[in-house]
Design goal:
It contains 13 helices and 25 strands. It is an alpha+beta fold. The protein folds into 4 domains: 215 residues, Spore Coat Polysaccharide Biosynthesis Protein SpsA, Chain A (Alpha-Beta Complex); 59 residues, no CATH class; 245 residues, no CATH class; 135 residues, Immunoglobulin-like (Sandwich). It is elongated and about 190 Å long. It starts with 7 loop residues before the first strand and ends with a strand.
């Protein structure tokens, strides 16, 4: 298509879904449809995760609308009213579209002017089918056609259907305006089924287009519990608007609002005013005719709840009796264990005292032995030092002896030389004698020569004797050194034997100490085991106490068991004082069973009177001037020191401008007494025939803010008792007062405070 393509407005509603916005808008900006013929509208429902800032900075071409109340249908209607396109495409913020998504929807809707809506093939991110249309079940339940099926082409044909999933549907704007836009009482879920029924009643058609493909993060921004709660409530609103003749039979449904084991405070009586208001709004003329069927359905639900209540009370009583008996047995066992533990503790204390005394004595002996061992070690080190000195002296003496041996060897060489010289001289003498004989030298000369030689020989013998004396002295010194060394070695051996004996004695002492330590460890292990056993028993007792405390603080005890006990005591007193004369028939007392039946009838009559008063008040339209349309909160629990949001709608039915004030009291929920925690007052100027939306944010401490129709104001009066609230159930009462300070309407909600 070209610039002649029809202008399409795509509306994306968001509540804290920032993480999904980038894939959604990126895929929208890349479709094969002229961007000049595409209007993107982003409606934000009170997001607190920075979604609006993210879209402003990342996608400046997108039109942004702020919705002051977290209401999906109201956000869609705001977007439709601000849209300029011929066609309106609703798209969830947690989706991603394929390129031909919008082009294929336009092709189908342009073929026939009686086609008011065309839905896409919606797939999960893993490729399985999420929805191709809606299929109807008994008791006015609807489900997604093809849910979680594999996509094998079984839904690849264009077909006319009853309604399509609003996560991706293209509507003709004129058809939506003619049908009256989306019903804001639905908020979210089943609003697409409801608008489909209205379009069908106008004679318009709804088609399914398989070539328009969308990928969806199922419940990406809503929890399963919230989804089921809205579906069950909106189912009854849808039946009240389109099938009022079947409303009484449809109240029970799957039993969600009547399930005793799944009770969270949202029972059928909490949503009944909204359903009756819807019935009165769209079927005022036949309203009274449908009440008998509604009361019949309520009686069936009450009977079922009464049966389940009695069954659960009996079962709980049995469990409580068992727990009580177990607690008694456990207490007796604990008493026995406590006595045994005290005896063991006394015995262990006596043994520990004796062991500590023995250890002190052993430690004193050990300290004495350690002192002796330290002295012997000092002596050993001194002996080792002396041995080192003796070794040094021995090494020195050995060096001296080696030097002496070298000198002796030199002397031996010199002596050998002298002997050689002497033998040479003898030879010379013999030669001289021969020469003398030969030359006939004089005897005097020979004698002179002999004397000289004798002198030299004597001098050599003297030197040799001196050397022998020196050698004998060195040998004596060596013997003395060896004797000293042997004495030192003997002394060291004696000291070593003494030290070995001391070491053996210390080893025996260590073994005795190890035995004592092992005995102490055994005793400590026994004591620790006893302590663990006692801790386990104490844990079991604490768990039992916690279970009993949890039961006494549970909703079952607070809202059913305790009221039943109080009612039983009350009726017992009434029986004694008032009813005994009444329940007498022909001289006989009425049986207990008959009395219970009478009480049940009385209670049913009281409920019927209250309902008739409400209906009578609803039918008197001329008397209704100011009323509270709704008082709701997102959760059944409030969180201390965190922002908790509450929504209140005030309606002025009169044709004149009125003044009034809203008073919200927060009180502890107790059958016996009530303690007011806080009070909030806001004065309002109410336009004629209009509703005023109020949003209150309160942290259950000091911080409070209040906005009216999206404009923030503080409360006119705010009071708190300055006491830190306890973790328990609270009732929040909203009262509407006129100019004369007369209460015109009152609504209540219940919450459990968590810390």
């Amino acid at each position: 298509m070209d610039e002649s393509s029809p202008l399409v407005s795509v509306i994306v509603v968001n509540h804290n879904g920032k993480k999904f916005l980038s894939p959604c808008f990126d895929s929208l900006c890349s479709i094969n449809y002229p961007m000049s013929r595409l209007e993107l509208i982003f409606v934000d429902n009170c997001s607190e995760d920075g979604s609006v800032k993210f879209v402003k900075e990342r996608y400046p071409q997108i039109k942004i609308i702020n919705n002051g109340l977290n209401n999906y249908c109201r956000a869609l209607n705001k977007g439709i009213k601000a849209a300029r396109g011929k066609y309106i495409a609703t798209l969830n913020n947690d989706t991603k579209v394929e390129k031909p998504w919008l082009m294929e929807l336009i092709k189908v809707i342009e073929t026939d002017k009686t086609i008011a809506a065309v839905g896409s093939k919606i797939l999960f991110m893993n490729g399985r089918i999420n929805s191709v249309a809606h299929c109807a079940f008994p008791d006015y339940y609807w489900a997604d056609l093809g849910f979680k099926e594999e996509d094998h082409g079984q839904y690849d044909k264009i077909a006319e259907v009853g309604s399509t999933c609003g996560a991706s549907t293209l509507y003709r704007k004129k058809s939506l305006q003619a049908a009256g836009l989306f019903d804001e009482d639905f908020n979210m879920y089943l609003e697409d089924v409801e608008i489909g029924l209205r379009l069908k009643a106008m004679g318009l058609k709804t088609f399914y287009c398989p070539k328009s493909v969308v990928y969806h993060n199922f419940h990406g921004t809503a929890s399963d519990e919230l989804t089921v709660s809205y579906i069950e409530r909106n189912r009854l609103l849808l039946v009240a608007r389109h099938f009022p003749e079947h409303l009484g039979k449809s109240l029970m449904g799957s039993g969600y609002f009547a399930k005793w084991d799944n009770f969270k405070g949202d029972d059928i009586y909490c949503i009944l005013p909204q359903v009756l208001s819807k019935l009165l709004k769209h079927h005022k003329d036949s309203f009274c005719g449908h009440l008998s069927d509604i009361f019949s359905g309520l009686r069936k639900i009450a009977n079922l709840e009464r049966h389940r209540l009695s069954t659960s009370i009996e079962a709980f009583q049995d469990r409580l009796n068992k727990k009580t008996e177990e607690s008694r047995m456990t207490q007796s066992q604990l008493e026995q264990l406590r006595v045994a533990f005290e005896e063991k503790e006394i015995d262990s204390a006596y043994k520990l005292t004796s062991i500590e005394d023995a250890l002190k004595q052993k430690s004193l002996l050990l300290e004495g032995k350690e002192a002796l061992l330290a002295e012997k070690e000092i002596r050993l080190r001194q002996s080792e030092g002396q041995l080192e000195l003796l070794g040094l002296e021995i090494r020195k003496n050995s060096d001296l002896l080696a030097g002496k041996d070298a000198v002796i060897s030199e002397k031996d060489v010199q002596l050998a030389q002298l002997h050689g010289e002497l033998s040479g001289k003898n030879d010379e003498l013999r030669l001289l004698e021969k020469e003398n004989n030969a030359s006939r030298l004089s005897l005097g000369q020979k004698e002179a020569l002999i004397k000289e030689k004798d002198i030299e020989l004597k001098a050599g013998l003297i030197r040799l004797a001196e050397k022998d004396n020196q050698l004998a002295m060195k040998e004596e010194e060596l013997r003395q050194g060896k004797a000293k060394l042997s004495d030192a070695v003997k002394t060291l051996e004696l000291r070593k034997s003494e030290l070995d004996a001391d070491v053996i004695l210390l080893a025996e002492r260590d073994r005795e100490l190890d035995k004592r330590e092992a005995e102490i460890k055994g005793l400590k292990c026994a004591v620790e085991q006893k302590e663990r056993d006692i801790a386990i028993k104490q844990t079991e007792i604490a768990s039992l106490k916690k279970d009993i405390a949890a039961f006494y603080s549970s909703e079952t005890f607070i809202f059913f068991v305790r009221p039943l006990w109080a009612a039983a005591r009350f009726f017992k007193n009434i029986k004694k004082s008032l009813l005994r004369p009444v329940f007498v028939l022909r001289g006989r007392q009425v049986t207990e069973k008959s009395r219970n039946k009478a009480f049940l009838v009385t209670d049913s009559l009281k409920k019927a009177v209250r309902m008739l008063k409400f209906i009578n008040h609803s039918l008197k339209k001329e008397e209704i001037t100011l009323c509270l349309g709704s008082f709701v909160t997102n959760l059944n629990t409030a969180h201390y020191e965190k922002s908790n949001q509450y929504y209140l709608r005030v309606t002025n039915h009169s044709g004149a401008k009125r003044s009034g004030k809203v008073v919200i009291d927060i009180c502890s929920f107790d059958e016996l007494s009530e303690e007011r925690h806080a009070s909030i007052v806001k004065r309002l100027s109410l336009e004629p025939k209009l509703s005023t939306e109020m949003k209150i944010e309160y942290d259950w401490k000091r911080s409070i803010s209040l906005s009216t129709n999206g404009d923030k104001f503080g409360p006119d009066e705010f009071w708190t008792n300055d006491n830190e609230p306890r973790e328990q159930h609270y009732v929040l009462r909203a009262g509407l007062y006129d100019e004369s300070d007369v209460c015109k309407d009152r609504l209540e909600i219940f919450q459990k405070l968590l810390k």
